Amino acid sequence: MLNSTSTTLRGPFSLLVGRMSLVRRPTLARNGRAFADSSKSTKDEDSGSQTTIHPTHSNPKATPGAVNSQKPDFDLMVIGSGPAAQACAISSSRRGKKVAVIDKPGMLGGVCVNTGTIPSKTFREAVLHLTGYRHQGFYGKSYAPAGRISMEGILHRVSMVVKGEKDVMRNRFRQYGISHIYGTAHFTGEEKTVQVTSVAVEEEERKRKRAVGTAGAGLEVEPFSKPFTTEKALVAVGTTPARRADFDFDGVHIIDSDDLLSGSLQRVPRELIVVGAGVIGMEYASMFNVIPGTRVTVIDGRPDVLTFADKEIIQSLEYEMRQKGARFLLGEEVLNARVEGDHVVANMASGKVLRGDCLLYTVGRQGNTAGLGLDKAGVEVSKRGLMTVNDNYQTSVPWLYAAGDCIGFPALASTSSQQGRMAAHHMWGGNEGDALKAFGGFPYGIYTIPEISMVGYTEQQLTQQKIPYEMGVARYDELAKGQMMGGSSGMLKVLFHAETLKILGVHCMGESATEIVHVGQVAMDMGMDMHFLTENVFNYPTFAESYRVAAFNGLKRLALAGYTDVSQHQHEGAASP
Ligand SMILES: Cc1cc2nc3c(=O)[nH]c(=O)nc-3n(C[C@H](O)[C@H](O)[C@H](O)COP(=O)(O)OP(=O)(O)OC[C@H]3O[C@@H](n4cnc5c(N)ncnc54)[C@H](O)[C@@H]3O)c2cc1C
Ligand SMILES: NC(=O)c1ccc[n+]([C@@H]2O[C@H](COP(=O)([O-])OP(=O)(O)OC[C@H]3O[C@@H](n4cnc5c(N)ncnc54)[C@H](O)[C@@H]3O)[C@@H](O)[C@H]2O)c1
User: Fold this and answer.
1) Measured from the CB, is residue 283 less than 6 Å from ligand 2?
2) How many angstroms separate the CA atoms of 81 and 532, rounded?
């Protein structure tokens, strides 16, 4: 069985253990009837309207065996259907386990597909397309193929992608024989039992479904409440946006990131105030910032934004956003916000009074654990609704596991999937362990405009840890690809050990940054040094070629700094094939 503490990490990546590794979770604190059968086609998408009572379940992948009357209803029940849930469910089903996934009607795919990653990234693609942003380098800032941009136009694309993703997921569950139960789950205190209650489809839900295009004709769900027995359970319930009582949230003038996708906003705001310059706030602020006619003000209580990323890159992002009109009020506190007529008025502790037609509140998220009955199951949750797990994603109750955003950092779709797989591995064992062992750290992709990505150390961390390093930089305007894309602003920075030349960190900004970061991630994970980048052939013209340019630049800097052992590499120039 995988023991994550014995995980072997190679090369400079091993230095990341403890900071970014998913494998090392905090040590467990000791104190601390609408049943959609996956084997049948569902008429309505994800609404729970197809009611199938299905007392027996057959997993096509299950190993045939003698029927045991004492057997629980399921081997595994997964609460939530986001990335952690899917990965754990599929991984368990592959091992022949009988699996059920429970989520509320309309929420197949979790926050990730309905209100988080997928819609927000599609929103971005819609904005980039409709504004003509990618082509403005050639045709001027007023180039806008779509003319006036509407929320409807943006959300149209969002709804199509969300629907497509749900279809894929539904098929995948069917393919793996995973039962999908529409309802809300909670624990009653009875061991190895999950109570599932169908939920009424409320008005808010209807609105959201209309916006994301999943509304079916009959949304009513037959009410039922039923206990299911299970060998193991995974809690993967995710998070919801945090709100403040002294802000008059009305879904139109004062909104959170869920409201933004709900279709309640009739038009693109002209004056948008974004409170909270975390990942969600900065992503949406930068999207609205490139829409002609929209002015964006970003407020954060801290003096700096996105402090976990490379300082220089964040400064460049802020510069780019300012160039497009954004205003940053950092180290500022908003006391309250109220709706006045068709406006929102925000009062700041500094005495400033801001007026806008919309305020987007993005100051963090709260674990969806309230009402789950975790106390009855014997599991503690934090004030933010987060759960504590051990290295194997197991709570203090051995049959109960938790993964994804509801256990906190890093709270990404990518890492949530990995956690789900690792939980399944610990539950059942099997072959996946070896692949999981090779997993070291993880990248960040921040989908601002321009986008940012990183993996490994930042300069600040290397300095703090007294690790001697040098950097190699390539700027997009030095690259043929950059020129072809309209001289698009962007850069790649590779940090490497000044003595061993091993790659320690990769930071990039600009078009395709979230794609090309993986070149550096793989090289770093394989323990490669800067010669690996100078000696390899890259497609030309590409943004990936920036690795070669950055490597030559870095080795040249190193030679200039007096590291003679690498001086033979200083001669080559930059962007040539
Ligand atoms: C606006 C936004 C943008 C994001 N962008 C990115 C990005 O670009 N890249 C990235 O990697 N990550 C991104 N994330 C984060 C990513 O969406 C999450 O990390 C990921 O969705 C977490 O997955 P999860 O498995 O924890 O479940 P979630 O996706 O959070 O889903 C949890 C599910 O549990 C269900 N649930 C809750 N309680 C119950 C209950 N009692 N019974 C039944 N079901 C229940 C909910 O209905 C929900 O469907 C973004 C998040 C947001 C909000
Ligand atoms: N591309 C991605 O990977 C991506 C995109 C979006 C979201 N996410 C995930 O979603 C999670 C939640 O994102 P988020 O942006 O809501 O939270 P966050 O924790 O990233 O950011 C919250 C921000 O609000 C600020 N803040 C807190 N209280 C404030 C106050 N009273 N006034 C002003 N500012 C205040 C904080 O200083 C911080 O900058 C992230 O942790 C991330 O994991 C990831």
Assistant:
1) yes
2) 41
